[in-house]
Amino acid sequence: MNKLKTTQDAFVETEEQRQAFDKVLDSLKKTPGPLMGALQQAQDIYGYLPIEVQNRIAEYFGIPLADVYGVVTFYSQFNLTPKGKYKVGVCMGTACYVLSAGPILERLKTMLGLQAGGTDAEKLFTLEATRCIGCCGLAPVITVNEDVYGKLKIDDLDGIINKYRGMGKDNG
Amino acid sequence: MANKIKTLQELQEIRERVAKTVVNRKTLSPEDSFGGGECPKHHVLVCGGTGCVSGGGRVIFDEFKVRLVEHELETQVKMVFTGCFGLCAKGPIVVVYPDGTFYQLVEQKDVEEIVREHLIGGKPVARLASKEKDECGNEKTIANSAFYKSQHKIVLQKCGLIDPENIDEYLAYDGYLAYEKAVRNMSQDELIENLKASGLRGRGGGGFTTGMKWQFAKNSVSDQKYVVCNADEGDPGAFMDRSILEGDPHAVIEAMMIAGYAIGATMGYVYVRAEYPIAVDRLKVALEQAREYGILGKNAMGLGFEFDIDIRLGAGAFVCGEETALLRSIEGGRGEPKQRPPFPAVKGLFDKPTLINNVETLAAIPHIILKGPMWFSSIGTEKSKGTKVFALGGKIKNTGLVEIPMGTTLRTVIEEIGEGIPGGKKFKAAQTGGPSGGCIPASHMDSPIDFDALIELGSMMGSGGLIVMDEDNCMVDIAKFYLEFTVEESCGKCTPCRIGNKRLYELLEKVSEGTAEVSDLDKMEQLSKYIKENSLCGLGQTAPNPVLSTLKYFRDEYMSHVVDKKCPAGVCTNLLTYSILQDKCIGCTLCQRACPVGAISGELKKPETFVIDVNKCIKCDACVPKCKFKAIVK
């Protein structure tokens, strides 16, 4: 669970994000134990949890920032840095692992030039070795954002990655 | 919004009315059709479990709807998006009632054919239907097929049968009758006694007697108590709880209400993994519908008790499956376990008495209340009653979800239900219990599966993952895989787990790299024992199990790594050297072209010239699958 201490990029937010976030905070006012929910919804809005957002949560609920940061760094789904447009997740559940998820991850590392957990400079791809996503019948499985690719062979990877690379370029 | 709150009488009317429209899904006999008229003639069930949805289930469902409109059949065919049917290996699955035709590996382009041939023409599409035949050559019914025959569905009964997003269908299968029966006919003590008599034990891993847990929670005196459903199913390769939530969410809600009545709690939480979006959505829909009907809320079902449920999402921490860590996470903290006692039943969520049960445990409870404890305890073995759901995965033909009576042998599960190992390979081991469990070798294939027998074998029931491994899997590598998982997921609070497991992992790394000595194996055993005895919570106490069980049953394989510096399964790359058998090689150069580092040299059609330069070879294994003549060995 090693994470970077601070974010590299300056934090900017849109007016909509700001409003949505305020709404989230208000909606959790009376919830017992609101921190996890606040962080999850904040991450949905901003894509990650910059220190500025953590600070606002800490102030709103009167929780020390150290505690908020402690929680953020404890759980693997909270991100302190922005992620790529396409999150490539290689399922490392046992069923996938015994059916060669390891070599698939290795190939993706070479193809994308990333380590697991890394994001490229253009913020196009983030490569992740994920926990079991539970469709073991399709093992081995990778996901790209919401899309699931099952019963994979190593040779399929080029086509899949190139598809997203093309889409990423098309959309600027 | 109109007041939709239902009286008990109205709920009963819904049950009876809807029961009539779903009746032909119960039977596989074609005579039981609907009464004609306005009622749909066919029911088409499309699997909406995560496995099938990932394989295109949603697209198929939508395609059916489009095609039905085109053929003006939308009033005659009822489309249902169900939970998991279990046979994930053959997904996406579509079942057509009343005849019960079981279509496998369906694709979007097949839909039109099913509509035309089957729904209009009345003739099932043989090409897509299951083709199992009995000894006389007659086609078997799906209930008699190898995969389903030895199963006994209790908690999975309604998965793949009802629409999980329609509370009326749950009601039609006696839904919320167990709660009604419990509150109207049983005192809290009677209810708990019933549960104890049923012999139900926790399905989440520990196997603690559920009735006792309820008793402790009831005995605690407090102004506020909580019921928590543990749906943080973190074991890799396990998806039982997810499938229950996806396929039959109301069963979990009803059981939590019963628990609330039994212990005197008015509030419940479901703590579920965020990796399960479909399960979370269905649960949200189910909660909303239950509130609309007045089943949840103040004066629930008009029976005088209050109960409501909130969903809390996990954020990717395996340790939160441990009960005290889970409660800490709901409170909004780091999911670190606490010393017990005090147990959650005394001091749990927000320091109030809390009952925590796992999804599968809860899902069995309405059945026990309705059919009685004696019925439940008649299934299973002496100390493990009822059924257990397993997620069957890995090197097995019929990957999927199976529910078997406790005491079924591993052989039945793997050879009959799972139909064995694909590719003619040999069975090597079955892993149960995820990172807390162990590997069971072929010599124990005939042991019955129950809580105590598995512990005896050095494994454990765990939540129910069952991963099959064949001769190509290296047991050192598997132990390493699990330990890497626990090392990463250790919360770091206690030293034996945080540092002990890390050191154990390093020893395993030495073994797989070929630098270990024989004495390291003894060190591993010693260290494992120490970690098990001294860790704070279940995660640490069971983390060395994969190492200990593989050391016990596959010591030879460890010795090969340590003494001969060889990995017999050909997995541990440091111990492999790739070479070409020139008598098998035909000089086609396919391997040469596949090699990313140019380590293979040789002239076309001259097999005697083909060699691998071991200094260049990066052991990526790219060449091996390319060779059709099995000329590359490692």
What does this structure look like?
- The complex is a heterodimer of chains A (172) and B (634).
- Chain A has two domains: 15-74; 86-170, Glutaredoxin, CATH 3.40.30.
- Chain A starts with 14 loop residues before the first helix and ends with a helix.
- Chain A has a four-stranded mixed beta sheet, with helices on one face.
- In chain A, a hairpin with a 2-residue loop joins strand 3 and strand 4.
- Helices cover 45% and strands 10% of the residues of chain A.
- In chain A, helix 2 packs antiparallel against helix 3.
- With 172 residues, chain A is of the alpha+beta class.
- By secondary structure, chain B is α/β, with parallel strands linked by helices.
- Chain B has five domains: 20-141, Glutaredoxin (3-Layer(aba) Sandwich), CATH 3.40.30; 175-376, NADH-ubiquinone oxidoreductase 51kDa subunit (Rossmann fold, 3-Layer(aba) Sandwich), CATH 3.40.50.11540; 387-470, Roll (Ubiquitin-like (UB roll)); 475-564, de novo design (two linked rop proteins) (Up-down Bundle), CATH 1.20.1440.230; 577-633, Alpha-Beta Plaits (2-Layer Sandwich), CATH 3.30.70.20.
- Chain B is 40% helix and 15% strand.
- Chain B has a five-stranded mixed beta sheet with strand order 7-8-6-5-9. A five-stranded mixed beta sheet of chain B has the order 11-10-14-12-13.
- Residues 27-38 of chain B have low confidence and may be disordered.
- At the A-B interface, helix 2, helix 4 and helix 5 of A face helix 2, helix 13, strand 10, strand 14 and helix 18 of B.
Give the gist of this structure:
The complex is a heterodimer of chains A (172) and B (634). Chain A is α+β, with helices and mostly antiparallel strands.
Number of extended strands of chain A: 4
- CATH class bucket of the largest domain in chain B: Alpha Beta
CATH architecture of the largest domain in chain B: 3-Layer(aba) Sandwich
Oligomer: heterodimer
Mean pLDDT of chain B: 91
What is the percent of helical residues of chain B? 25-40%
Query: What is the residue-mean pLDDT of chain A, rounded to a whole number?
Result: 89
Give the DSSP E fraction of chain B (strand runs of 2 or more residues): 5-15%
- Number of spatially distinct domains of chain A: 2
Contiguous uncertain segments of 5+ residues of chain B: 27-38
Strand line-up in the sheet with most strands of chain B = 7-8-6-5-9
Q: Write out the strand line-up for the largest beta sheet of chain A, numbering strands in chain order.
A: 2-1-3-4
Can you count the beta strands of chain B?
18
Give the termini distance of chain B in whole angstroms: 70 Å
* Alpha carbon gyration radius of chain B: 27 Å
Biggest interface and residues each: A-B, 41 and 53 residues
Outline the biggest β-sheet of chain B.
5 strands, mixed
